[in-house]
Amino acid sequence: MENKIKTFIAILLLLSITFTVFGQTSATKGEAPNDNKATLEAQTATKKKPVDETRGYIVSVGDKAPDYEMTLDNGTVLKSSDNLGKVVMLQFTASWCGVCRKEMPLIEAEIWEQLKDNPNFVLVGVDRDEPLDKVLKFKEQTKVTYPLALDPGSAIFGLFARKKSGVTRNVIIDQNGEIVFLTRLFERGEFDEMKDVIFDLLEEKKVPASSKK
């Protein structure tokens, strides 16, 4: 009888040890996914490109472009959703901006004239907080033929940059709605790099500016 009791106690001790070890192992396995998730989130955070605050932007290359809706100088309403699957160039400008007046004829000659017949390319000059009559006069003065859009209160501008920062900036958005290039002011090298990005996305061949008549 005494032997049976000892055997029974031994079995109970063995079962107790087994359940304890099993429970610790299960807990350890249960923590692994959380640890892996935390590691993945940390890695993703380090890969995010910083916002180019030095140039007034609140977006950066790699971001999805903000949704927008604008009225063009001919009265057409254009939404960002209309442009999915296309390469979009938003040129932020204003009639009082001297650098804009320098850049716009180059955009006309070196980008718009070469790509205006491509249905997969959209170019809009977004005029910052000016009335239609002033925008139309500005368009006539700069001799550009690509569409300009009204931006009352700089609402569209404010989706991409701090409202206290200046114009003369271009935002290039790819076919997936992702920002792929940003410019500020006018610098010939950066302008040419922007052109390369646009033409490469469209798989178009550039005509050198010097060869145009």
Question: What characteristics describe this protein?
Answer:
single chain, 213 residues, alpha/beta, Glutaredoxin, 5 helices, 44% helix, 16% strand, globular
Write up what this structure looks like:
With about 210 residues, this protein is an alpha/beta fold. It has two domains: about 1-45; about 55-210, Glutaredoxin (3-Layer(aba) Sandwich). It has five helices and seven strands, in the order H-E-E-E-H-E-H-E-H-E-E-H. It has helices at about 1-45, 100-115, 130-140, 155-160, 190-200, and strands at about 70, 75-80, 85-95, 120-130, 150, 170-175, 180. Strands 2-1-5-4-3-6-7 form a seven-stranded mixed sheet, covered by helices on one side. A hairpin with a 4-residue loop joins strand 1 and strand 2 (about 75-80). The longest helix is centred in the first third of the chain and has 46 residues, at about 1-45. It is globular, with a radius of gyration of 30 Å. The protein starts with a helix and ends in an 11-residue tail after the last helix.
- Neighbour order of strands in the largest sheet: 2-1-5-4-3-6-7
Tell me how many strands there are: 7
CATH class of the largest domain: Alpha Beta
Number of helices: 5
Envelope shape: globular
Structure class: alpha/beta
In the CATH hierarchy, the architecture of the largest domain is: 3-Layer(aba) Sandwich
Mean pLDDT over the full residue set: 83
Distance between the first and last residues' Cα: 114 Å
What is the CATH topology descriptor of the largest domain? Glutaredoxin
Q: How big a fraction of the residues is strand?
A: 15-25%
Order of helices and strands: HEEEHEHEHEEH
Rg estimate, integer Å:
30 Å
Poorly predicted residue ranges: 18-47
CATH superfamily of the largest domain: Glutaredoxin
Task: Give the total of domains.
Answer: 2
Q: State the major sheet.
A: 7 strands, mixed
What fraction, in percent, of the residue positions are helical?
40-55%
